[in-house]
């Protein structure tokens, strides 16, 4: 009798272990296609770009290994530091999108008749392509017939002045980026527990205090996504620069992404372009890892 009772736990353990093995096997096969696609479309291009950055290659003739030659030339180039400075300007000004998006989201998160139409109008700029946004703002800034001339009273060569061209393009980019952050915050506001807000009001929290101490802590995931995607968008900015200024005048509005394209497509310097891509990837990686570690620390 005791022998049959002793066998029950071991039989149960074998069944549990076999079930776990089956679950792990199923999870592996479900994850395999996604992991293979990620490795093919993300990991392999990253490794290829890093490898290519050590070569001199025009895309047609055989590659020539030059070691750190591309990186040495890159860090001695004045255009690289201009592009880096413009990326920093993009980063600082572009970070206005999350707070603006939060303000619009708080305004639109009201149960008022016709608010859905207003939300659609606010979201409309985000669905426009970068080329369309660039053309619209190029016409807006045009010193001969642009709307800015009509508002100010005289023409201002925003895109023709090396001191203002970068700021003009960044403000154009804020137009579609702000609605994107607004949608992220609107999604976060729908998941807020109304009982927590009521409890805060009963404790005397109103206005700014209610927003800072009750609402914003519950919007941390939305804030994280808005900030990270805005920073990545600022660092990889390309389309508006290509449409509105072409990196000019005299490379004054170029950024790392456009500088990379310029060297690869116009001058057939694939290895040098890959070195720029690696530097840009390293900058993004440092920021994302720092932000992820900070968010995980706060959650713990």
From TrEMBL:
Keyword Nuclease: no
Subcellular location, record wording: Cell membrane
One cellular component term from this protein's GO annotations in UniProt: plasma membrane
Transmembrane keyword on record: yes
Family designation: Belongs to the binding-protein-dependent transport system permease family.
BP GO terms, sorted: transmembrane transport
Cross-referenced InterPro entries: MetI-like, MetI-like_sf, UgpAE/MalFG_permease
Domain ABC transmembrane type-1: 83-291
One Pfam family it belongs to: BPD_transp_1
Protein's name in the database: Binding-protein-dependent transport systems inner membrane component
Keywords per UniProt: Cell membrane, Membrane, Transmembrane, Transmembrane helix, Transport
UniProt main location, coarse: membrane
Entry's transmembrane regions: 27-47, 88-108, 120-141, 210-233, 272-290
Membrane topology: Multi-pass membrane protein
């Amino acid at each position: 009798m005791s022998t049959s009772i002793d066998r029950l736990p071991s039989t149960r353990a074998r069944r549990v272990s076999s079930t776990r093995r089956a679950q792990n096997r199923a999870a592996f096969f479900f994850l395999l296609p996604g992991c293979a696609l990620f490795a093919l479309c993300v990991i392999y291009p990253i490794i290829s770009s890093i490898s290519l950055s050590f070569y001199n290659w025009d895309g047609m003739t055989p590659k020539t290994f030059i070691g750190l030659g591309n990186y040495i030339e890159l860090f001695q180039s004045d255009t690289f530091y201009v592009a880096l400075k413009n990326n920093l300007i993009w980063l600082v000004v572009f970070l206005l999108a999350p707070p603006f998006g939060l303000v619009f989201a708080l305004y639109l998160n009201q149960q008022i008749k016709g608010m859905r139409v207003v939300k659609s109008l606010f979201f409309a700029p985000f669905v426009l392509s970068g080329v369309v946004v660039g053309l619209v703002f190029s016409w807006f800034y045009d010193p001969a017939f642009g709307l800015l001339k009509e508002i100010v009273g005289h023409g201002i060569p925003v895109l023709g002045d090396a001191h203002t061209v970068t700021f003009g393009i960044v403000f154009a980019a804020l137009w579609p980026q702000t609605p994107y952050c607004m949608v992220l915050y609107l999604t976060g506001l729908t998941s807020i527990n109304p009982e927590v807000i009521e409890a805060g009001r009963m404790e005397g929290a109103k206005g700014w205090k209610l927003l800072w101490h009750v609402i914003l802590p519950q919007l941390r995931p939305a804030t994280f996504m808005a900030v990270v995607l805005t920073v990545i968008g600022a660092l990889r900015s390309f389309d508006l620069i290509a449409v509105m200024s072409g990196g000019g005048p005299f490379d004054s509005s170029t950024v790392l992404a456009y500088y990379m394209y310029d060297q690869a497509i116009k001058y057939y310097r694939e290895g040098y372009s890959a070195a720029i891509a690696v530097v840009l990837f390293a900058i993004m990686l440092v920021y994302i890892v720092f932000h992820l570690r900070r968010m995980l620390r706060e959650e713990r």
